[in-house]
Amino acid sequence: MNKSLIFVLVLIYCTNTAFGQAAAPDADIATKNMNPVTKSRLLQIDSSVVTKHQVTISGKIITYTATAGSIPVWDEDGRPVAGVFYTYYERDGVKDKSSRPLVISFNGGPGSPSCWMQIGYTGPQLVNVDDEGYPIQPYGVSENRNSILDVADIVYVDPVNTGYSRIVDKSTPGSKFFGVNEDVKYLAEWINTFITRKNRWVSPKFLIGESSGTNRVSGLALELQNTHGVYLNGVILVSPTDLGIDRSGPLAAALPLPYFAAAAWYHHMLAPDLQQKDLMTLLPEVEDFTINQLMPALSKGGFIDDAKKDEMAEKIARYSGLPKKLILEYNLDIHRDLFQKALLRDKGYTIGRLDSRYKGIDRQAGGSTTDYPAETAAWSNAFTPAINSYLRNDLNYKTDLKYVMSGYVTVWNYDNDHTGENLRQAIAENPHLHVLAQSGYYDGSCDYFDVRYTLGQLDPGGKLKNRIKWICYKSGHMIYMQKDARVSATADLRKFILESIPKPGDPAKY
Questions:
Q1: Bond into 110 cis (ω within 30)
Q2: SS3 380
Q3: Can you tell me the distance from the alpha carbon of 333 to that of 351, in angstroms, rounded to the nearest whole number?
Q4: What are the DSSP E strand ranges found in 310-401?
Q5: Pairing mode of beta strands 47-57, 7-11
Q6: Residue 400 in contact with residue 198, Cβ under 8 Å?
Q7: Greatest distance between any 2 Cα atoms in the chain
Q8: Whether pLDDT at 23 is above 50
Q9: Interval 236-258: pLDDT, tens
Q10: Are 2 and 66 within 8 A, CB to CB?
Q11: CA distance 382 to 137
Q12: Which residues pair with 207 in a beta bridge?
């Protein structure tokens, strides 16, 4: 990795009076102007560090400028109430920003900083893991030769109480930030400030979010458009949630089965005739059974006759790799957590929730839930030391403030989550807005068949489906943790971004 060529400090501060009104003494908050590069746990809410770098992408050397810093969140009176940390990558030598795309990137959680996609997927540096995503030492990062920085500038945003972002006004309650709609509102204001400061109003703009970050970017698409006049070219949903679209009862019970089949196939737990099939041949068969036989059977509940119930249990067992007896004990309704506990029970392992390729070991074989998510333990092992070292040593953002990998946002307000409908409305209002959804077959949290249902219900009339695209990969929730999937997925991102920018002069109209 090339070391930084230039080190520049850029300090932008509010007036002392305004800052003094907003801030209260705290171990994590600065109450006076300080250098952000400091051995201190004092947050500098309006400061940045700028460095110069280069990376080779697709065989071509790309030089770029990285800015790591914090921009305030303002209240209604213009006082800073929080500082949001970001890392911004700009390709050098681009004089005309009007045709240079800007990608605004979030992770999910809620409570996750953006480092996962920053050093795992789209950024210019890539966390050190093996080809299947398992941690290796020495920890750190290396060149990401599949980064999308060749075609777009990228800003990675850490929401409040993640990464280095913090509330600075102790009179401001966490409820202002910690909720589906609260999150969208303050981040839209922050994005407005960011694109104004960085002079990106005329640039093509894209949002990308992962997991519950897909709720965030779906809500932001409409909020930015209707409140701030920021019209997007694209929204990218990586491992989307249900986006507030209701599903329950027989529907919820049936939808996971194709994921069960994919995970069982990966671990060689299916009958030989199914195991020898290619995954892409097997899954349509399971999907057809799920829609046309399992859903109607489950809808009968306790009124299903014994013979039919036994037949369904036999088929579920065949496609899931689970014992028929277990399926009958749970009345054909196998929850994802039970599946992840039981699939490899006889072999002494559990499988991961976010990525079922990963195996774990529990204290006891019995029970219906795993002791820990096997994949998260592996990923934290690799990412936590890497992002801390990278920010300090490569981007020169030196601070003793803790970089929070899992934020303190447990009291999260999920009420009135209409983010799927928000996204549909944004697409309808903006003829230039396109959507790309990416999923992993082995994701047991936002499983691929459930995502397909979400996208289908997102636009039940089918009038917008030519602007909604879905692609699935042989990986898990963080699809980029598998090397081949990462290479394909970044290529798909690059293609989507370029194809979503209209030709000069093309009007946004139906």
A1: yes
A2: helix
A3: 19
A4: 350-351, 359-360
A5: antiparallel
A6: no
A7: 77
A8: no
A9: 999 999 999 998 889 999 999 99
A10: no
A11: 8
A12: 104, 235
pTM to 2 decimals?
Answer: 0.91
13 — pLDDT class (breaks 50, 70, 90): very low
- How far is residue 118's CA from residue 106's CA, in Å, rounded to a whole number? 9
- Number of Cβ within a 10 Å radius of residue 126: 25
Both tokens of 478, joined, read: 């963080």
Distance of CA 197 to the CA centre of its chain: 25
Residue 34 has pLDDT above 50, yes or no: no
**What contacts 421, CB < 8 A, 6 or more positions away?**
244
pLDDT-derived band at 36, boundaries 50, 70, 90: low
Q: Are 444 and 263 in contact (CB under 8 A)?
A: yes
Element (H, E) at 265: helix 257-266
DSSP assignments along 191-225, one per residue: HHHHHHHTT-TTS-EEEEEETTHHHHHHHHHHHHH
Distance CA 119, CA 393 (A): 14
Tell how far CA 181 is from the center of its chain.
17
Q: What is the pLDDT of residues 332-374, one digit of tens each?
A: 999 999 999 999 999 999 999 999 999 999 999 999 999 999 9
Of the chain, the percentage scoring pLDDT greater than 90 comes to: 86
Express as a percent the part of the chain with pLDDT over 70: 92
